[in-house]
Every structure is written in C-alpha cells, then in structure tokens.
C-alpha cells in the first residue's frame, strides 16, 4: 500500500493534460456487452476501476486487451456466456453494477452481487430495479444477490423519482434492444450520460434527447461494435483548477470541454479566480485575493458533489465564512476530520459545513477516506506549510491518472512511497 508525501508552498506553473472521464468510460465499457462484436475504447484512462470492470467482463467470457502505453482497450464480447458475475469484484467497485442492464438486454437474465464502492453514503439501487421491472423483467433479491430475468423486454415510459446517474445509464442499456419505445423522464443530465448515449448510437442504437431530462430510446434488434473516444474528465479538470487557487498559481489546463465545467467555473469566478476559457483548454489564474462563497451540491447542471471536498479545501484558506451544503450523499463530510488535522476550522451542522478561513494549512499525517476526499487532502497539502503524509491513496488511484506525476510536471513537491 502506498502513501503520498507532499511538501507545500510551491507555486505551480506550466500546463497539464486532462485524461478521459472515468465516470464516462465505465458505463461505456459495460455497454460493449450489448453487441457480440469487437469494440475499441481510445484514450481510455488507465485507472484501477477500469481494470476492475474489465476483469468482470473477462469473468463473463469476454476477451479484453489493455494497451496501457497507447491508453487503448480492445474488447471482444462475442464469447460472453456467463449469467452471474464475480461477487468480490462487484463489491469492490459499485460501477460494476452497470453491467446488469446490458446483460439483461442481451441474454434475458443476470445475477449479480449487491454493489460496493466508496463509503460516502447510501446509494440504493431501487431506481435501477424499478426501471428493469417497468421494462418487463422480474427481479429477486436474495442472500446479497440481485437476479433479474425476462423473456422479452418491452419499451415503457419510466419516471425516475430522482435523476440518478447510474439508474439512467442502466435503464438506457436495458432498453436499447427492448421491443418498442422507452422514454426515461427525469433522467440524469450529466455529460457522462450523453457520452454513453452517443456510444450506444455509434453501435446502432436509437437514443434521442441527449443532454435533456427526457431520453427517448427506440429499440433495435441488434447492435454492432464501435470505436470510441470518451469525453474529458470534468472532475479532474476542476481538481486542478482548485489546485491553482490554493497555491496562488497560474497555469494552462488542456483537454477540457468548457460546457461541462460551467458550474465549477461559475463558482471559482465568483471567488475571484480568473479563468480564460477556450473550447478545449483554459488558463487559470489563482494569484488574486479570494473571497468566501456558499456552495450547494446539486445534480447536473448544478455544482457537482464530486467537487465538494476539493472546494472545501480551498474555502478553508479563504478569509471569512463559507457554507457548503451537500444534498447528494449524506456521508460525504468524512474529509472534514482530516482537514481539521491540518488546521481547518470547519463545523458540521447536518448536511452543511460552516467554514471559517484560516491563513494556511499545516503539514500532518492524514488518510484518504474516499476518492475525492483524497484529492482534497492533496490539494490542501500543496497549499500548506511543511510536510503532509497522506495514506490510503488507493482511493485516489481509482479516479486520477498519474495524479502525482501531473502535479510534479507543474512544479509540486509530491512523491509516492511504499508504506
């Protein structure tokens, strides 16, 4: 198990390239199950979660070749014959549950372990199962497993009580070969949803309403293989943008879609950070005086919950009082205890955190409690005084490609060590 050693105080400069979005790639890999053909994912981020979901596909009988040097994943799903997944892998990563919709669609039956993942709060699968039932599948939960089966899925109008990203993706994959028309209302609008829909369409699906809260899917008889390049990671881009603010730095970020990062840009601009946007790159200037703001996480196009912890690190060193309200996950303030070890003045009141700005963080021994919390600690350490040791960084490796190497390219003093 590795740890990061970070010495704060360095000003960052130069440029950094953003990788493809993990949250787009995982459902796209799951969707390759839908065709008995070959698919190629180009510019795929070589992350732990990618390897895990590829291992799940291998267990089911797919041939998967990962070329880490070229960031390419070749998947041949023609040999898939399993109707049950490896429970340990699914418990390891919640995203593995996304294979269920594709498996039911193609084979009419699938059994899978209840999912695991980051311990940031309850993320029930009831909306996924509601969607499967609406399409005509029978669903049974027993001894930690979910089993769904249907002789023939049929299109239906499905209203989601909450715009769940995972449920939208799973229902979309289940419905692309269903008989007739499926309409998903109150669907999640995240860019990663649109990216999955575009990949499905490239495979021969008929999905419309991309980018809106109402998706229309007309079932087709079969899908074929496709090559695809996923979108850039808006959360990684946002993380580096906040790093510029906390280190009082100015540098270039390449590989962005300015439409996807609008909520992040809006809040950082409100704080006083200058951002010069182009279509696929930006220059961020965090050298000015920053002011406190209030943030409330919301489904897209609101401020993303995956940026809440990183923003809290930045607000902790901004003079004045800021309030961060978390509406998505009820247990996503676990990083607060670790930030307090570094000197932060934060008080939790239900789902809100009241932050009184300090001058700067001080080095300490801390641990990553989840993926984004880990990134928040790295950012805090970069802008802090002295040396910080961050343990359990396997969480960070789940969502950031060569995080420490990219930071070192900008001039950060960060190194990975074995514990």
From TrEMBL:
Q: Does the keyword Cytoplasm apply?
A: yes
Which GO terms are recorded in the biological process aspect for this UniProt protein? Answer: cell division; cell wall organization; peptidoglycan biosynthetic process; regulation of cell shape; UDP-N-acetylgalactosamine biosynthetic process
User: What are the entry keywords?
Assistant: Cell cycle, Cell division, Cell shape, Cell wall biogenesis/degradation, Cytoplasm, Peptidoglycan synthesis, Pyruvate, Transferase
Q: Name one GO molecular function term.
A: UDP-N-acetylglucosamine 1-carboxyvinyltransferase activity
- Give binding positions for UDP-N-acetyl-alpha-D-glucosamine: 94, 123-127, 306, 328
Coarse class of the protein's main subcellular location: cytoplasm
Matches recorded under InterPro entries: Enolpyruvate_Tfrase_dom, Enolpyruvate_Tfrase_sf, MurA_subfamily, RNA3'P_cycl/enolpyr_Trfase_a/b, UDP_GlcNAc_COvinyl_MurA
Name of protein: UDP-N-acetylglucosamine 1-carboxyvinyltransferase
Q: Which gene encodes it?
A: murA
């Amino acid at each position: 198990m590795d740890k990061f050693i970070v010495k704060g105080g360095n000003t960052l400069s130069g440029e950094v390239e953003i990788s493809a979005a993990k949250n787009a790639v995982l459902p796209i890999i799951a969707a390759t199950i839908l065709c008995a053909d070959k698919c190629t994912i180009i510019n795929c981020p070589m992350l732990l979660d990618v390897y895990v979901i590829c291992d799940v596909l291998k267990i089911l009988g797919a041939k998967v070749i990962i070329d880490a040097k070229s960031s390419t994943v070749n998947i041949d799903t023609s040999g898939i014959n399993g109707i049950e997944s490896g429970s340990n892998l699914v418990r390891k990563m919640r995203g593995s549950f996304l294979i269920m919709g594709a498996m039911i669609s193609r084979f009419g039956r699938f059994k899978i372990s209840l999912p695991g993942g980051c311990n940031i709060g309850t993320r029930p699968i009831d909306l996924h199962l509601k969607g499967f039932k609406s399409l005509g599948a029978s669903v049974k939960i027993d001894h930690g497993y979910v089993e769904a089966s249907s002789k023939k899925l049929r299109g239906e109008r499905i209203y989601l009580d909450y715009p769940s990203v995972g449920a939208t993706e799973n229902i979309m994959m289940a419905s692309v070969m269903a008989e007739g028309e499926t309409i998903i209302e109150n669907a999640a609008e995240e860019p990663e949803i649109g990216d999955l829909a575009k990949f499905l369409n490239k495979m021969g699906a008929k999905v419309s309403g991309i980018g809106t809260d109402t998706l229309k899917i007309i079932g087709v008889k079969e899908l074929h293989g496709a090559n695809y390049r996923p979108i850039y990671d808006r959360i990684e881009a946002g993380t580096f943008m906040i790093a510029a603010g906390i280190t009082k730095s100015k540098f270039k970020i390449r590989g962005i879609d300015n439409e996807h990062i609008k909520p992040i840009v809006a809040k950082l601009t409100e704080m006083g950070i200058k951002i010069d946007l182009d279509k696929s790159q930006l220059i961020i200037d965090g050298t000015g005086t920053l002011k406190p703001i209030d943030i409330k996480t919301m489904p897209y196009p609101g401020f993303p919950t995956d940026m809440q912890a990183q923003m809290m690190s930045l607000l902790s060193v901004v003079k004045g009082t800021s309030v961060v309200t978390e509406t998505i996950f009820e247990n996503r303030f676990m990083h607060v205890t670790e930030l307090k070890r570094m000197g932060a003045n934060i008080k939790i009141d239900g789902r809100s955190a009241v932050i009184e700005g300090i001058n700067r963080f001080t080095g300490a021994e801390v641990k990553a409690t989840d993926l984004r919390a880990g990134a928040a600690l790295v950012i805090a350490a970069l802008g802090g005084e002295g040396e910080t040791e961050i343990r359990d960084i396997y969480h960070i490796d789940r969502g950031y490609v060569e995080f420490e190497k990219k930071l070192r390219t900008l001039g950060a003093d960060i190194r990975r060590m074995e514990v």
